[in-house]
């Protein structure tokens, strides 16, 4: 049986701040309800349609470049507004997240709830490690996601993975 709540972290571990979504996803594995599914994806638009299939609540996290200061957090409820294409204008994919979401909207394959968290990146050059501003935004995003997920569940949050 597929999870009711799914978190999808997007990114590339070897392009500095582009690893943001995957970092959030990995960190959330330590403190989430047991029936919340965590996935990591590269951000290829059509793969996302399959990644969220069957989930009721989807949270997608990715690095963005809109010109805002590094570490700026954007939260978009895709059911109530289109995903601003300016956030994902520098995607390395010809068919990226924004295109995948809009294709799913046209095909009526969006999950009932799809929230996108975009964290403004500062460095996307080759290498590993997040910039300090993005590292702070990752922590804030994790806290917000834990709160949002908790409101969807009827049971307490798991505190540490070694206690499970």
The overall strand count is 5
Mean pLDDT: 85
CATH class: Alpha Beta
Provide the succession of SSEs: EHEHEEHEH
- Please estimate the helix content: 25-40%
Q: Quote the beta fraction.
A: 15-25%
What is the fourth-level CATH superfamily? HybD-like
- Helix/strand/pairing class, anyone? alpha/beta
CATH topology value: Rossmann fold
The domain tally reads 1
Low-confidence stretches: 155-164
Secondary-structure blueprint:
Layout: E1 5-10, H1 20-28, E2 36-41, H2 45-52, E3 57-64, E4 73-77, H3 97-106, E5 113-120, H4 132-152
Parallel strand pairs: 1-2, 1-3, 3-5
Antiparallel strand pairs: 4-5
Helix pairs in contact: 1-4, 2-3
Task: Tell me briefly what this model is.
With 164 residues, this protein is α/β, with parallel strands linked by helices. It has one domain (5-163): 3-Layer(aba) Sandwich (Rossmann fold).
